[in-house]
Amino acid sequence: MNTNDRFDDLVTESLRAEAPHEAPSRLLDATMNRIAGTPQQGRRRVAGSAGRLLAAAAVVLLAVLAGTQLAGLIGRPAGTSPSPSATVAPSASATTSSPTPSASSTPAIAPAWTATGNLIDARANHTATLLPHGKVLVAGGGGSILLATAELYDPGSRSWSATGNMNGIRTAHTATLLANGKVLVAGGADSVSETSVNALATAELYDPATGTWTATGNMLEARAQHTATLLANGKVLVAGGSGGSGSPSLATAELYDPATGTWTVTGTMMGARAEHTATLLPDGRVLVAGGNSSSGPQLPSAELYDPGTGSWTATGTMVRDHAGHTATLLPDGRVLVLGGSSGSGPEGTAELYDPRTESWTATASMNGEHLGGTATLLGDGSVLLAGGGSSGGSGGEELYDPGTESWSGTASMLEASTDHTATLLDDGSVLVVGGVSPRGMLTTAELYDPGGGS
């Protein structure tokens, strides 16, 4: 029986009650019980049916107030009007006169992590991309052995399946979901050592409809540990990174045009940097912050890219220098930068960039140091920091509240890790995949449920 049929039965049962005046209350109670009994990740699917049931309750109350025979309302097609005697809308107080459960009556659900299906291949420094149909594409990465493989996570079955292999192995690359639904993978490296990175200029496209990869135009410059940002005009801005084997950080930037499959040069950054962050701001500009300089030290500098002019301008200097950090656009338009490494080692500090003033201010420090972790904006506006501890990924999971600018602890991951990925799924949960733990490369994946009482 589908949800709408069940609601029709509830309407009928309520209308046949011995006390007709109680029908609206019964319907409202049924609605609230239906919502309260639905797992959090499924409540959005119930919303339309719940609204239909509440509307039915209002119709029934009209009938009761007007003295209309209740039996005549049973089975009325959706959208038809009640009898003329019941055409006057009741007041708001009338429709809510029956007691309904308060929000506080629903027990709060504590945040929690649960294991989900294991990856086919152990991997770290890979990419994870949420596709339009809700599945997650994980590609490349690896450890001592680098990978060309890719796989798909299905949130419905909580399982992984292989998809087409990339045309070549790569790690420290970027993956960008394009407006046409394809995924652009660019650059990265096919070998990495303590002293050098053999960067790639190649790029390829994944088509979710066929599960296959096709080569697209090569970048103008080989690069790894760069950033890729989808602009409002549909093009992709790639900036900085590490150059070819033994090369220093790059200041160059280029644009990918999905319509032509080609790359063109755009303005050069004011400073060379790798392992930086790039954040698309609400006004269409891109904030690039921190990273490693050509000479090695981490950078406190930041700059803005204007797609309209193709130029870069300096913006406020960060409070601390950061590389390998995270940057998260908050609902109020500010950008939260946290963790990474500085000249003194792993960072426990965090700071905020305000585009209106183009300035940085310190915010509350995290409860631990985090390098190689992930930061994910949750549906309630808070930010989940997962993994990336200073010793084997054991930094502890934390939540940042932008309203109070404070941190609080949350449920711990089942296995501490660094260099994993974190993806916000359509149901509001967060999928954390792979990475490195004290026991080595991981095939594990787990889901974070933010919990809550509604």
Tell me briefly what this model is.
It contains 4 helices and 34 strands. With 454 residues, the protein is mainly beta.
Overall pLDDT level: 80
**Whole-angstrom Rg:** 26 Å
Helix content estimate: 10-25%
The helix/strand class is mainly beta
DSSP E strands, number: 34
Strand content: 25-35%
Number of DSSP helical runs: 4
Instruction: Give the low-confidence spans.
Output: 1-104
Task: Explain what you see.
The protein is mostly beta strands and 454 residues long. Helix content is 12%, strand content 31%. The strands form ten sheets. It has a four-stranded antiparallel sheet with strand order 1-34-31-30, with no helix packed on it. Strands 2-3-4-5 form a four-stranded antiparallel sheet, with no helix packed on it. Strands 6-7-10-11 form a four-stranded antiparallel sheet, with no helix packed on it. The longest helix is centred in the first third of the chain and has 24 residues, at 43-66.
Topology (SSEs and partners):
Elements: H1 3-15, H2 23-36, H3 43-66, H4 92-95, E1 112-116, E2 127-130, E3 136-139, E4 150-154, E5 159-163, E6 174-177, E7 183-186, E8 189-192, E9 197-199, E10 203-207, E11 212-216, E12 227-230, E13 236-239, E14 253-257, E15 262-266, E16 277-280, E17 286-289, E18 302-306, E19 311-315, E20 326-329, E21 335-338, E22 341-342, E23 345-346, E24 350-354, E25 359-363, E26 374-377, E27 383-386, E28 398-401, E29 406-409, E30 421-424, E31 430-433, E32 436-437, E33 440-441, E34 445-449
Antiparallel strand pairs: 1-34, 2-3, 3-4, 4-5, 6-7, 7-10, 8-9, 10-11, 12-13, 13-14, 14-15, 16-17, 17-18, 18-19, 20-21, 21-24, 22-23, 24-25, 26-27, 27-28, 28-29, 30-31, 31-34, 32-33
Helix pairs in contact: 1-2, 1-3, 2-3
